[in-house]
Amino acid sequence: MSASPPDAAPPAIRIAGLVKEYRSWLGRRRVRALDGITFHVPRGEVVGLLGPNGGGKTTTLKCLLGFLRPTAGEVEVLGRPPTDLAARARLGFLPEESPFPGFLRLEAGLDFFGALARVPRRERRERIPRLLERVGLADARRRRLDELSKGMARRFGIAQALIGEPELLILDEPTSGLDPLGMRDFGRLLAELRAAGLTVLLSSHQLGQVETVCDRAAVLHRGKLLAFDPVPAIVAASGEKTLEAAFLRLVA
Amino acid sequence: MRAGPLPLGGAIRLARLVFRESAPGFAAVAALAGAVALLACARAVETVPGGRAATGLSVALFVAKVLATATTALVGALVVPRHLASGEAVPLLARPLGRGAYLVGAALGAAAVGVLAGVIPLVLAAGALRAGWLGPDAAARAAPRAALAAAAHAPDPEPGATRVTLGARSPKLEWRFERLEAVRGRGAARLSIRPEYVLAGGVPGEARALVRLRAHDAAGALQAEQILESQLGHRRGSEVPVAGRFLAPDVARLEAVVALPEPGTAASFDLVRELGQERYGVALEAPGAPLEAGLGLALLGLALQAAVVAALAALASTFLSEWASALLALTLAIAAWSRERIGDFAGALARAQHTHTHGGETHVALEAPGPAWLTGAADAAGRALAALLPDLSGLDLAASIARGRLGALDPAAVGRSAVVAAAALLLGWAIFRAREVHGGGRA
Fold first, then answer.
1. CA distance linking residue A144 with residue A109, whole number of Å
2. For residue B303, which of B58, B109, B23 has the smallest C-alpha distance?
3. Which of A106, A237, B13, B325 fits B320 for a cystine, CB–CB 3.0-4.6 Å?
4. Residues B442, A160: C-beta atoms closer than 8 Å
5. Is residue A96 within 8 angstroms of chain B, CB to CB?
6. What is the distance between the alpha carbons of residues A52 and A32, in angstroms, rounded to a whole number?
7. Is A98:A153 a contact under the CB 8 Å cutoff?
């Protein structure tokens, strides 16, 4: 496991000694979801967050978004606390589910999330058609969000995460529900974003895709960080040939 | 990243979202169409008369108030818990919105839905006024020359006529009049004639009425005289415009005589109460308020009340489940409407406990509903609750509209309610900020 190289600008994400415990009422039962996680995500990298169900991926993301208070440890996003609104204005987030207001039409939905992201109206008007084209929803721009298939809703989710042209993109299971064509398109989109210098934290079970597009991977299991290294290094260290095999060996 | 609007902009966008989520599009369109119709009606019905129209309008205003309050409390209490449960809050709170702005937006949206719910009965009432189902009372017109001559020279008092003298003292105490001084110098007034019943041939019907107005100076000399004709219906009155010359400073006595010249017609003008609304037989009233302005003020009052109730509901929703917070918000709203009664009730309870007068002696009441410490505690709790609650009654601008007057905001009630609403939102923000957001599953 290697630390991120020192840089003048703070890393896009800094997590140090992060502990998160869920407690029952009166604190009689405790579940430690994260147990001393430490890693930095350098700017401009695409990092995969891997782990089996219950490994702590979503809890980590929620701590990064300020939805959960760490029990111990520190979390910084773009050099600021996760609850800082200025930092939030510079990040895009795709949640695991697609709980978007169903009555909105695609264009109106993107306009709404763009406005919340503080994108000026004129820029929203320019970006929305481009984004819809980019995620393959240009033909469905007048459809209501509750009429979309799961895969289309994921595409919309990706578009709404990108509407603010963020510096940091946090994606929670972005390919869940996407058909093979959609997964291929998403892979291309991610490659474009990486080429544009965007920092991406990608939580996914699609290990083949992570191996293809991610610079690094963090492997979480039972709340502990098992690995945080460049993908080839993780594969090589395990003695396996693919990331999937390496992952299975790590969490076995 | 360019600097964007203040968090208030985000709150307003969220309010629009909540409004559109909670109010179906057709309801919003219907309310908009209704508002246009309302303005059109307002031009047709320039004043809000008394009688049946006032009663109908009172009912509509009461229904509007109840609907607006209940809707606001329910929507305001349900928004946050439902967003959290469905995970819809996650993509919203991941934006640079802030939980305070989110809570304010939810409250504003709920208040807007509440106002929409209140607009509908007002629109219906205005439509009913326009259609004539509620009124207005018929306006009097100048009597024909023959009738004028007959009435002008009729013996005084005329047989079958109702005679009303308006001045410093009213001869019939059960009839209530605005004093002449109250309308003097206003340039115009109206004489409202609202019969309790009109009989024609022994059955409810309509009757032609002649109204003679006479103004006398302090020496009893006649200053001005006018005779008008109108049509009175069963529980459907007439409005007689009173010109400025009858309200001149040197007029000491104004006399109105209502006569039913047709044989077999009769009417009663006694004071009646209907649905809590007093309807006066014959009354001199200030010029009626424009309905447009009156209903506009009623909506302003509704909006202010809804904003306060929404703030209370938003506070409740930050620490209770959705239905529990809705129940608490509704209870608080009802208590805020009855704030003064809560204080009085608690005080009365305590007084019943401590003193009881019987036979000229004061005893400790034995029938007190509990031990002294309990009634004392109830008294203290009631007073404390009354002190903490906003004054929703003081924000009610609708009550006086049915009598043709425009209400005025009570600055003390506005200030008190604003402080309570702001405190509720601040407390709600502090609680909500400390809450963890779990929507979207745990891993």
1. 9
2. B109
3. B325
4. no
5. yes
6. 16
7. yes
What span, in angstroms and rounded, lies between the C-alpha atoms of B159 and A121?
A: 77
Q: How many interchain CB pairs under 8 A, A with B?
A: 105
If phi > 0 it is left, if psi is from -120 to 50 it is alpha, else beta; for residue B334 that is alpha
Cα–Cα nearest to B353, from B340, B343, B366: B366
Q: Is the pLDDT of residue B290 over 80?
A: no
Contact A117 B438 (CB under 8 A): no
Beta-carbon separation of B88 and A99 below 8 A: yes
CB–CB contact B436 A69 (8 Å): yes
Structure tokens at B88: 């819809």
Residues B304-350 have pLDDT tens digits of 999 999 999 999 999 998 889 989 999 999 888 888 777 766 566 65
Residue ranges and CATH numbers for the domains of chain A are 1-90+167-252 (3.40.50.300), 99-165 (no CATH)
Each domain of chain B, given as residue ranges in start order, spans: 138-285
DSSP for B371-439?
-HHHHHHHHHHHHHHHHHS--SGGG--STTGGGT------HHHHHHHHHHHHHHHHHHHHHHHHSPP-T
pLDDT confidence of residue B178: 46
Residues in chain A closer than 8 A to B95 (CB atoms): 88-89, 113, 116-117
Is-contact A158 A171, C-beta < 8 A? yes
Contact B229, B140 (CB under 8 A): yes
**Residue, of B129 and A47, whose pLDDT is higher:** A47
pLDDT at B384: 84
**CA-to-CA distance for B210 and B258, rounded, in angstroms?**
6
Mention every residue, 6+ apart, whose C-beta is less than 8 A from residue B381.
B346
Residues in chain B: 443
B441 vs chain A: nearest CA distance in angstroms? 8
- Strands B141-142 and B222-232 come out as antiparallel
Q: Is B443 on the interface with A (CB under 8 A)?
A: yes
| CA-based nearest distance B88→chain A, Å | 5
Least confident of A119-128, B11-20, B134-143, B396-405: B134-143
The span from the CA of B375 to the CA of B373, in Å, is 6
CA dist., res. B53 & res. B60, Å (int): 10
DSSP state, A25? Answer: G
The span from the CA of B267 to the CA of B197, in Å, is: 6
pLDDT of residue A37: 94
Compute and round to an integer the Cα radius of gyration of chain A: 18
In terms of Cα–Cα distance, which of B317, B304, B300, B299 is closest to B424? B317
Q: Is A25 on the interface with B (CB under 8 A)?
A: no
Residue-wise pLDDT for B388-432, tens only, equals: 888 888 888 776 666 666 777 788 889 999 999 999 999 999 999
**Between chains, do B1 and A165 touch, taking CB under 8 Å as contact?**
yes
In chain B, which residues have their Cβ closer than 8 Å to the Cβ of A68? Answer: 436-438
Nearest to A99 among B4, B10, B86 (CB): B86
